[in-house]
Queue: 4 jobs
Job 1
Amino acid sequence: MKKEFAVIGLGRFGGSICRELIREGMHVLALDLDEDKVNEYRDIASHAVIADSTDENVLRELGLRNIDHVIVAIGDNIQASMLTTLMLEEMGIKKITVKAQNDYHEKILNKIGADHIVHPERDMGKRIAHNIISNNILDYIELSDDHSVVEVIAGSKLSGQSLIELDIRAQYGCNVVAIKRGKEINVSPMATEEIVEGDILIVIGADKDISRFEKNLITED
Ligand code: ATP
């Protein structure tokens, strides 16, 4: 059975989630206060409705309690975002993802019980900053305040050496969890796997360890 989603707020963020879920074959109820936004999604979403998500009766009438996962993508109106999340929580929705506008908003959403809080502008800003600072870091995902996953390009320093020879886990405290070579991706590479210049390594660990690893083994002198 198709998973049922609802996206509340069809700005750039909510709209792009809606389009992508539909592209992946999901069933999506799209909801916004703004008639023009809803009209834009009439032919895209499975259903598109003009509604105010802060009205509890509306949420009930739309049958939101039967939806598997609701995404609250209301931006500027923090009060509406919080009230909507609280009501969805009280209705017993299994999974709620909410876009946070700032740290204060995020803190309250945590208290209300949102399952998953996203901060797209802040997170994308951090990813781009890491990519700008180091040409060798292709991507960066923050796991916590001090742990991340990064994608780095292997240069000449690593070329021809195996993971066991490099002893990255013992020397640097981080782990190479996958190696991308062209279109191939080797998840959980063997210790004997030899690195080739140009390989993309996916490394997980504490930021300070990843930074040491990157400085010593990736950055060219
Ligand atoms: P983005 O960056 O994703 O474009 P944003 O962060 O600027 O958006 P807004 O444009 O403020 O966010 O809000 C996103 C959408 O949420 C808007 O289309 C707005 O009409 C809708 N919205 C705001 N309040 C409600 C509400 N109570 N019920 C339904 N939709 C709402």
Job 2
Amino acid sequence: MTLLIKNAIIVNADKLHSKPQDILLEKGKIAKIAASIPEGSHKIVDAKNKLVFPGLIDLHVHLRQPGREDKETVETGTRSAAKGGFTSIFCMPNTTPVIDNAMIVEAIINEAKRVGLVNVYPVGAITRGQMGKELTDMAELKAAGCKALSDDGKCVESSQVMRLALEYSKMIELLLIQHCQDHTLTAGGVMNEGYHSMVLGLKGDPGIAETVIVARDIELAHYLKTKVHLAHMSLKRSVELIRFAKSQGIQVTAEACPHHFTLTDEAVKGFDTSTKVNPPLRSPEDVAAIREGLKDGTIDCIVTDHAPHTKEDKETGFDNAPFGMIGLETSVGLTMTELVHKKVLTLEQMADRMSAAPARVGGLATKGKIAEGLDADITIIDPEREWEVRVEDFWSKSKNSPFVGRKLKGRVEVTICGGKVTYQA
Ligand code: DOR
């Protein structure tokens, strides 16, 4: 099977190629890039007037399988990912049962291969059952296919457990992703603590619940001379702490979600439970700082934290609804509309934050760039295409998005994974 992309304006993190080129994909790899490649008997994809990015990579997705297949499955979640332009995703371990042993990791990888749309890398739990006490068998999880470990959905709160986890993961060279939220400080908060929580009469989650863990884990990484990756950063103060840590040479990396660079806590005003998310939507100053952090590279990656929930689960009072919103199918549109068209990020920076950097952080050496010899994972985007987010268009099994009705500019046209077209608009 060969596939030839014609007239490609290639956007790599290190270079936007202004002259159109042809890209030949063969046996799952990028075989050749040249000014003109004869059409021969290849299947053709014409990318005229579109932008051709390296396949997008999302380090933070909840697929819900096993256990909550009513919310999402590997099949529906990877269909949603392909529609959103993603060719590789990391799926979080807060399933039922928790992804804390090799058997579950292998089952998810096998199911993803059977569906055949997106490369899925299960994130193993740091602690057994995500209980925060006993470390998982990290070497076993790595051998089964994990590229990273996290207790996401929950924070590793014990400093001693986090220290041991960082020491072991350093030894076996596995990335640790921390969900930064001290639950003794969130203390039942359901939205950002501030003016809006006061007016709405909802219990507030204070920013320090995030920043005390950010600061602590930076200190642990510094002391242990190891890496740590901080999930879904939402605060100005977190960006400042990470910027300072990076200036000191501490090996910290971080990610942020489109909802945290787009929405403020004012969005909770109508009590729409799709705006209930962990960490919560924050203040305008925080949104501006997340944008600034993405621009200067303090925040390495854009991730979705795609968190599907059923209508039944979300259609309850704000206090009782589960945290989370879907994000795979709106990430490119929001990033282009809010960051690229508003000149916060250049196209090359978008390619970095959505592909090259996640490949680097997640240890995917053959991905994140369009170059001969690398994996044939490609995302073709029409930067000018305007579209509206509509519930009926979501391919995710769940529809819990606060962006329904929003008009966006920039749309995924074609997704190619391993040389195969996995989505075409
Ligand atoms: O809002 C969230 N939902 N944040 C998380 O960290 C977990 C996620 C979920 O699993 O629903």
Job 3
Amino acid sequence: MRSNEIREKFLEYFKKNGHAVRSSSSLVPDDPSVLLTTAGMQQFKRYYTGELDAEKDFGSLSTVSIQKCFRTSDIDEVGDESHLTFFEMLGNFSFGGYFKKEAIRYGFEFITGVMELTIEAVTVFDPAKVPDGDWRKNGVPFDEESYVIWREIFAENGISVDKVKREGVDNFWGPTGTEGPCGPTTEIYVKSVEGKSIEVWNIVFNEFYRDSAMKLTKLPTPGVDTGMGLERLAMLSQNVPTIFDTDLFTDLIGDVLEQVSIFDLMLPRAKRIVLDHLRAIIFLIADGVRPSNKEAEYILRRLMRRVIVYEYLTNDSFLEIFLHRIIKKYNNIHQKFDESVILSVWHEENSKFLKTVQNGIKELNRMSTIDAQSAFKLYESSGLPYEAIKEFGGNKAGTLTRDAFDKEFKKHQEISRAGVAKKFGGHGLILDTGELKAGSEEEQKKVTRLHTATHLLHQALRDVLGGGVGQMGSDITPERTRFDFTFSRKMTDEEKKKVEGIVNQKIAEDLEVRFEEMSKEEAERTGALHFFKEKYPERVKVYYVAPKGKGIETAYSKEFCGGPHVTHTGEIGQFRIAKEEAVGAGTRRIRGVLA
Ligand code: SER
């Protein structure tokens, strides 16, 4: 079945079953706890918690949509056979309407009846398969209901009931952002043409709410949230080995090779990167994102530069042909594209990047040999990606391999977080971690005091304004700390006084500041606050503020952090909120100073 038909059939099937058809929300979400929209349920979050009323807004307790999604976590994997940054997610949702029985039957009927695919296996949540200490074990029972429903359906249809399997952590959907609805899932697997078992549909039963301390409470009205990637479903339906062999991508190539012979010569990996990234670039620009150096804008810039480099490598500006084709294929599916806007953003970034490339190549020409380490250094200083270094490096980069480069890349991600504290303390060292900026030793002492004060401030804000407060950004100079956080209104004077009072109280108690290094999972389990937009390495440090000699479990504040911090809160001095203001919808900014 071609992708257009799949989209239609999906909406039609659920409409027939009483679902209100909703269009995709923007890739740039209202929800400040995520950078970009990653799932269909996001636009409906407040219907699960009961803050909004679906019956009133949609005339139904259930909806269906095809959502534009973007997952940053997969950027570095793109190029293999199955990863994408941008994709479309088919989903049906229930907010206190139908539950497990209907949701599972719909899933079965759509896959086997409408799509005419054969189910290879399904999985249901069993806490016995979850490691001890994991938050998903906190009082979540075996999903026996789903287990029984699937076995009944399979028995009715002559399918072996042994195909209903019990699984652990993969069958529990965590909230998007720091807190939110979550619950056990059941997943449907279909065999690919190459015999691999592919997870095609994730059906989530939102029975719980996870708060910022990782505690689960039952939601008053449980809901259903499902997600099925269009690209994967098309791959299975079209009997092709990879998502890039579906009409969603092959249509973009078509007869293009006559015009861009160079594309034919590119490696499969490069072709996939080009096609995936260009699709994402167009949708991001169309949703208002512009390339720059922070957050979603930086992601767009990264994607653009990554593909533009192929034009330099091939000395052929062939990408525009693909831009036109993608715009044509996707126009009016989710929105009407303004081609002239997309192209002008494209051209502007292209000319900016030209400078970077030229500087990078100059640097490269000065190097005598290029191994993984020096290649990575060059990448960091100039932005030249691996492909360009390999190509322009010629013989000098003869022994450089992608594996070695990737290893260096990973190593660095970890060092750059863990290393901050170590580097600190050297005389005259410029400290710029992105969060802290200081020059002289004197200045470094000041930012360190403000840094610990910022952790106390973060926790105090949560104490006073509630667990919905999450860090959106932080910037510390010797003069002040600037802390951005999610909160929907102006703080009252009384609230500001309270927050100041708590911070100063914790300073007066002269608590100890220590850290423990642990795996990311362990750290999450401690309930330590973290900056949810950040991708953390496997091992992280958790800085905590606790009474003298007492452990992390007694801590007032716990955060994922690279340091540096004071050793005792008494060193901080008097804290004061100098200003509280808005910085965009749902985000507030506090400037704090020390006396
Ligand atoms: N939210 C779930 C997912 O993204 C189901 O839609 O997989």
Job 4
Amino acid sequence: MINLPSVFRFAPSPNGQLHLGHAYSALLNYQLAMEAGGRFLVRVEDIDQTRCTPELERAMLRDLAWLGLKWEEPVRRQSMHFGEFAKALQSLEALGLTYRSQLSRGDVRRIVEAHEKTGKAWPRDPDGAPLFPGQTHELDAADADNNFAIRLKTQAAIEHIGGPFEWQELVFGGTDKMIESDPKKWGDVVLARRDTPTSYHLSVVVDDAIQGVSHIVRGSDLYEATGMHILLQKLLGLPKPLYHHHALILGENGQKLSKSKNGTSIAQLRQAGATPNEIRQMVGL
Ligand code: GLU
């Protein structure tokens, strides 16, 4: 058997300034890649072209370089690969596992509220968002001019491909675990929208496969999302990487750091005189 090098990646979205949480994730990936004698990639996840800007991308790469990271060039920018995501989407469509829906977030909210008024809870996904109510009607040609989303028929997809939906979670300094997941928890996720021809879930699995990523090291906020990624990998016939979900760096209030809130951005810390080494210490590396 050929022993392929380990491939790690840090895959931020340039929709705000990188903060200490990103620094930790990027530095950890880099350190693990170097220890393994492997490769380290940076991928720009900019499918949301309204929130991601070239300026934010430049600032992000500047922060990463300042931290001392070195990555392979050219970086993969997702917005330049919509065609590859479309191909993956077509193969799911060909399996009959997708549908078009026109319900807006507001429509869903109204359906959920009406249901909850009857005293019954509406199921929610692991991020707390209400599960999509499902296909209410087939869209005709006139509808297709309006805003629509292409969604996965998750239950049908699970039945089509069959479980288990498990992955190997690396435990550094301990015993790795096999994690059994249930992609149904996410309901009918969005695969593409009219204005964004892909989605986070779809593009992340396609890109990790295209780039030969062998180790996905990312925050524990994406732990549950991995279940959906395993389902999509199986449906698309993609290899399954190893995973490690690391603890999140929390703010003083115990809350998850946010790109939009100030105070812990790498740029601000640098301007305030912090050195890359001090940042490493601040995140416990
Ligand atoms: N782009 C995602 C984010 O910034 C991370 C994707 C991933 O690591 O799988 O949260």
